[in-house]
Amino acid sequence: MLDDSMAYHLTLSLDGWSNSRMKSIYSWNIVFPDRRVMLLRSDDLSSMSHTGINLAELVIKEVKKWGADRFAGIVTDNAANMVAMRRNLLHAFKHMVEFRCMMHAFNTCMGSLLGHAWAKKIVKRNQKMVTSVRASHLPLTELGMIANRMGITRMLITSNKTRFTSVHASMESVVRLQPALTELADKQPYLLTDKALALITDDMFFIKLKKLCYLLEPFTLVIHAVQSNDTTAADVMRYWLLLAKHISKLPSDSVDADFKAHCFTAYNLRHNEMVSPLCQLALLLHPLYRPAVITGRMHWDELRETAGQLWQSRRHSKAECRQLMQVDLEQYKLGDAPYNRLPLNGQLATLRLWWRGILHDNPELQLPSLALLLLDIKPHAVDPEKTFSLIGWFQSDRRSRMLNRTTTNLTMIKMHLMTSMVLGDGVLTPAQSVLGAIYGLQVKTSVSQGAIVGISCAIVVGLFMVQRFGTGQVGFVFAPIILIYFLCNVIIAVTNITRYKPSVFKALSPHYGYYYFRNNHHLGWVQCSGLFLAITGTEAAYADLGHFSRPAIRISFLAICYPVLILTYIGQTAWLTAFPDQVGSTFYASIPFGDGFYWFVFVFATAAACVASQAMISAAFSIIKQSISLGCFPQLTVHHVSDKVPWEHT
């Protein structure tokens, strides 16, 4: 229930939102005069039409439930249904006043300025550059290291197309990082796309960016200020006048001349909306700004008429309205007692005390009550958006319900664990792959086990030693080697399937796996550990994920690697049906067509093992480099061995 001591002059703020499940959620908040906020209700209105009339019926019902006399005003955004709802509500409760959310109003005005072709072009080019740099971890990490060395703490910021303060923040981040971006473009241009490189090296782009940032900075400051918990209608009027002063004093060479004229036009189009009679009256009743308002261009008679109409709508008598307009306001205008007191500062709490003190000493006066009414109304609907942020956090499919710190810690543990496993794989895969390939010598020759291990060790050591020279000189043969190796596997598989068991493709049916475990029970699960070896090595296909795009790796794996692997294992299965005692050396023993083809396959199997090992080694080096950049690994010197390919380093 509402506390009677503070349950008057309430502001009802209302806003709608669509969550990730496309449900229409509406939040109702009550703002007390001391700016405490209470969530009145949060409803899923997906099943009803969100017309102004329907929304007004719900609001009227809720206002009546808590007592209409308790409410001073309602604040919403300026969507068509919200505007219609406010009008219907004021028709039912004539004592209430309406405000559009002033934070949205200033944001919309800022968007109008950015609607000019000159500004749109700059914003578009800025967003392209930011998106291009942030698209890959390599340039972003290098930029972070350069910026950290230069003492620049903040990184590139992306923008939201409906939050124009984020557009300014994004452009400001680019201007702030210009020295770091320039150094990155000079020393490591291969990390950047051609479009990003062209923008970074274009001095005129940064000049225009700085000019636009200069214009938008006061708007960003105002939008942040108007969201304050202590904002009043008087502050809205004051901020609007400050923006007018800023636009009028723009130097002629600061922005494009046509754009400057557009700024004046956009500002004037929204002037009547922002400079409402209530905001003007609120500014007049702010003791600190009274002299400026009285001596300014605001019409005194119109302000007095606005005060009388508002007081009459609050069901005050004609005598009280007459006293307000003819006595109280005239005394306030002249600065006579009791209005000759000086407020300590412009803070909301101090202003409320100032007017309450006058009302306490002079209870017959009407003006202090009117001033307190306007001070108590909070002219923005930010509180429902905060509610939506909380609801989104709980309802989002991408977030858990755990505390942020817990989630962060678990994510870090998962990241370090997976990174450690990839690093371990980068050490084990070369040894295992090369050893398995060289084992083919023992099938056709009398080479000892020790010799095979020695040859494998020599190849692995050589692989690690040549890392310092890079793979750019021989990298062009990697793809042909793998393709020839895959082709050999296909030939072997097709031959064995046609020779020994064409019906072996039935083994692809999952129900055979079910019967296998059902018939073998515990032994089946023990033998299942060997099946895991059938998928080892597939991680090498994703080892270059930081070097190539996801679609490229997915297409290569699903279109080439995966079908060849399935066909290879099916072919070996067909061969094992005829030679079940050869399970220990299935791959080499199943090669048909004599010794010539055998040694051909052996050479390319060994070469393919070296290529796969090289991929894992490169991935391990890349991970170490990124870990150094993130402070998760001891500082080591990284030498780039190629001026064209960014992932070749030692």
Count of alpha/pi helices: 27
What low-confidence regions span 5 or more consecutive residues with pLDDT below 50? 397-402
How many beta-strand segments?
A: 5
Mean pLDDT: 83
How far apart the termini lie comes to 68 Å
Q: Major beta sheet, specifics? A: 5 strands, mixed
Helix coverage percent of residues? 55-70%
Percent strand: 5-15%
**Class from secondary-structure proportions:** mainly alpha
What's the Cα radius of gyration? 37 Å
Strand adjacency order, main sheet: 3-2-1-4-5
* Shape type: elongated
Write the topology of this structure.
Layout: E1 10-18, E2 24-31, E3 37-44, H1 52-66, E4 71-76, H2 80-92, E5 97-100, H3 102-113, H4 117-134, H5 137-150, H6 164-176, H7 178-187, H8 194-200, H9 203-226, H10 233-248, H11 257-269, H12 271-274, H13 277-284, H14 290-295, H15 300-313, H16 318-334, H17 348-361, H18 367-376, H19 382-395, H20 404-438, H21 440-444, H22 449-465, H23 478-500, H24 510-531, H25 550-578, H26 586-589, H27 594-629
Parallel strand pairs: 1-4, 4-5
Antiparallel strand pairs: 1-2, 2-3
Helix pairs in contact: 1-2, 3-9, 4-6, 4-8, 4-9, 5-7, 6-9, 9-10, 10-13, 13-15, 15-16, 17-18, 20-22, 20-27, 22-27, 23-25, 23-27
